[in-house]
């Protein structure tokens, strides 16, 4: 994955905390450009009429001026700290997730990186509405950094489905591996390539197929070996990149066993595909993907298939 430009949304009430520095450290290592983006939500006359006589456009201008000063200060401080990174900022008004998606597309950014950790949430990985909208609707890869982050990324996990039957599914696998490998290489981190699998029709074999447990076990072993071969083939380019690689083939439903593996093995970054309603079999869809993401305690990069059509971009 070739990353040259990163878009970092910062809401007006946010400050550049230490969580953001995981993003900036990666950007500095890759010597890429970073744009800080603030989106000021529109203020309607009805919203302010009961509180002040001041016109809504005057209040909006004041907010924009204050935010511009803050962004200029942030860019100056970050430029001094991360000298191999080119920083700039943009300030727009509108609906946050809509403007972020549009700006990422118009500016041809390779990655959106957002701080998803907020103090009012009971768990670090409970994503806010803007983050969830971006996960569902952004064609640009999204990196969400949460409050249980490690400043140094030591373990990266790529979640793939080697049984994906469509061309889009196969390409999404390659995209996930490429992205995960890029982050592992930049951080000198270990890379886990994880595939969750189940024997198709196992319940039918038991209930109606009149097969013995031994026969079912033999079928499962053959299926596991076939999946393992595909996983090995998928990870072959990574072996040539001299990254410490671990292949993990685990039996069960991904939304159940993947969070457990991540939390038990101290994974710092999960890279996975979220396909919403595109119909790519094998990849997590909609609520299942979001439930999984709520269950992990690490930063996450979510990717879409190459031909994903965002409802925001029409």
UniProtKB/TrEMBL annotation:
Chief location bin: cytoplasm
Q: Where in the cell is it found?
A: Cytoplasm
- Where do the UspA domain residues begin and end? 3-145, 161-303
Pfam families named in the record: Usp
Annotated Gene Ontology cellular component terms: cytoplasm
Protein's UniProt keywords contain Cytoplasm: yes
Which InterPro entries does this chain map to?
UspA
Q: Which UniProt keywords apply?
A: Cytoplasm
Family of this protein: Belongs to the universal stress protein A family.
What name does this protein carry?
Universal stress protein
């Amino acid at each position: 994955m070739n990353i040259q430009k990163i878009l970092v949304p910062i809401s007006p009430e946010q400050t550049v905390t230490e969580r953001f520095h995981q993003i900036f450290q990666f950007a500095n290592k890759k010597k890429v450009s970073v744009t800080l983006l603030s989106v000021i939500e529109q203020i309607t006359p009805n919203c302010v009429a009961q509180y002040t006589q001041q016109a809504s456009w005057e209040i909006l201008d004041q907010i924009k001026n204050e935010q511009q000063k803050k962004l200029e200060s942030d860019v100056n401080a970050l430029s001094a700290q991360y000298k191999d990174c080119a920083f700039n900022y943009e300030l727009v008004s509108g609906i946050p997730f809509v403007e972020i998606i549009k700006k990422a597309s118009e500016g041809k950014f390779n990655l959106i990186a957002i701080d998803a950790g907020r103090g009012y949430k009971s768990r670090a990985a409970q994503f806010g509405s803007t983050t969830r909208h971006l996960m569902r609707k952004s064609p640009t890869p999204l990196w969400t950094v949460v409050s249980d982050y490690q400043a140094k990324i030591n373990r990266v996990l790529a979640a793939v489905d080697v049984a994906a039957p469509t061309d889009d599914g196969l390409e999404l696998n390659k995209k996930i591996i490429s992205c995960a490998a890029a982050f592992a290489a930049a951080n000198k981190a270990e890379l886990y390539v994880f595939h969750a699998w189940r024997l198709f029709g196992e319940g039918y074999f038991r209930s109606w197929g009149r097969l013995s447990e031994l026969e079912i076990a033999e079928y499962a072993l053959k299926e596991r070996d076939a999946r393992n071969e595909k996983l090995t083939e998928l990870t072959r380019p990574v072996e040539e990149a001299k990254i410490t690689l671990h292949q993990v083939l685990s039996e069960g439903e991904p939304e159940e066993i993947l969070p457990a593996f991540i939390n038990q093995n101290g994974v710092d970054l999960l890279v996975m595909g979220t396909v919403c309603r595109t119909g790519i079999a094998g990849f997590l869809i909609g609520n299942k993907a979001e439930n999984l993401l709520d269950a992990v305690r690490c930063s996450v990069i979510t990717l879409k298939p190459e031909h994903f059509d965002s409802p925001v971009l029409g």
